Each structure stands twice: as C-alpha cells, then as structure tokens.
C-alpha cells in the first residue's frame, strides 16, 4: 500500500515539476549518451583487437619434398594447435599477385615460382602469445620437411600493449562518466526535495517514515534514469547509422545496448536519488 502511494506521489511530483524533470532528463540523457558512445567505442576497439588476435598464426615453410599430409597430422597433435591449412606454392603466388596487383611486373623477373609451399598453423586463444608461439614454433621446426617458421611476435606484443592501454584508459574514463551521470541525477532529485522541503517536514511531523518519504523520489530517479537510457540508446543508434555511412563496419549489438542503457540508467537513478534523499533526511 505504501509503495503504491509512494509511486503515485512520484508521478505527481514529476507532472507538477515537469519543466525541472524534462531539463534534468535532457542532461541525464546526454550524460548516458556519452557513456553509451564511450562503451560503443570501447566495444569496437576490443572487437578489432579480437579480430587481429584471431589472425595470429605460425607460417611453416616446407621443403620441396616434404610429406605434407604427415606434417599436417603431426602438427595437429601439438598442444595449442587449432587448425592447419596447406598453402601450395602456386596458391601462395596467386595470393601475392592479388596483393601486389599494381606492381605485378615485379614478379615477372623470376623465371619460376620463388615461393615455397607452406602450412598456416592456427592456434588456440591461450597460445596466442609470444611464449605459446615460440613453443609451438620450436616443436614444428623439429619436424622433418619444415624449412623455416615465422610468426608475428611483434604483433602479439603490440596487441598486448594496446589492450592494456585501452583497459587502463577505459577504467579511468568510465568511472568519471558514471559519477557524472549519478551526480546529475543526484542534483536533480536534490532540487526537487528542496522544492518540497516544507511538505516533507509536514510528512515527518505527522509520523511518515523516511522510507515512505523516499519512495516518490527514488521512483523519480528510476524513471529519469530509465528514460534517459532509452533516449541515449536512440541517440547512439542514430550515431551508429551515420557512422556506418562513413565507416563500413561498426559493431553494435543493439539488444544489449538497449537493455544495458535502461538497466544502468535505472540503477544510476536509484543511486543518485537515494544519496540525495538520504542526505536530506539524515
């Protein structure tokens, strides 16, 4: 019963102070939109790093008379190897020609195909690091028929540095944005509380509990946060649509973003409103 009355009072507060609520909703929406953009950029950065990580592999160049099937079978048994793909010398030449279309005449200086056959060795995720690459590469080199192995050790190190930088930067910026959103909601609810301070004092004098008084403001904070989250999601979706006309691919899981925007908006609303009402009622 008390909850129902509290929610009804919350709706009445919103409608009675609609100008303040709409202004606060606008600021909250912008704050959550910035948070959503930040998350979107972060997700796409991690997605790009993941795609690069999946390209980390070992290339084993083979002798002319290597037993390809035997090598593929033996390499597949090595711990950490996910897949082995054979690339013939002819296929390697075609791939190179496709990559060097503008300078294809450079390859014409060779009387015969200079590229050896090779094996592309795909690794499991836990082995896509310098140590794992080195261990598997050394084992492959021991096999008869393997002339040389190469792997992107520098790429692995760069990916690790990029990931660490993103994580460190994200953590700091995320905290700042979250506190900004909560602060906006906190200030909004505080203004509403001050506007109704006389009414609240009367309620306390007639015996209303702090929890009963807090319900309308908490409800207002939830509504403000959730609506702000929805608006932020719509703004993000529009931004993604505009961006995709410039950048071919933007990773944007809509359902997760919508749910996250509403849920986190409501949570921030609860935190901000609770902090404001607790400060007033203490």
From TrEMBL:
The UniProt record lists the keyword Transmembrane: yes
Subcellular localization(s) per the UniProt record: Cell membrane
TM ranges: 20-43, 165-186, 212-235, 255-277
Xref: Gene3D superfamilies: 3.30.70.3040
Boundaries of every ABC3 transporter permease C-terminal domain copy: 173-279
Keywords: Cell cycle, Cell division, Cell membrane, Coiled coil, Membrane, Transmembrane, Transmembrane helix
Coiled-coil stretches noted in the UniProt entry, renumbered to this chain: 86-113
Topological relation to the membrane, as annotated: Multi-pass membrane protein
Official protein name in the record: Cell division protein FtsX
Gene source species: candidate division WOR-3 bacterium 4484_100
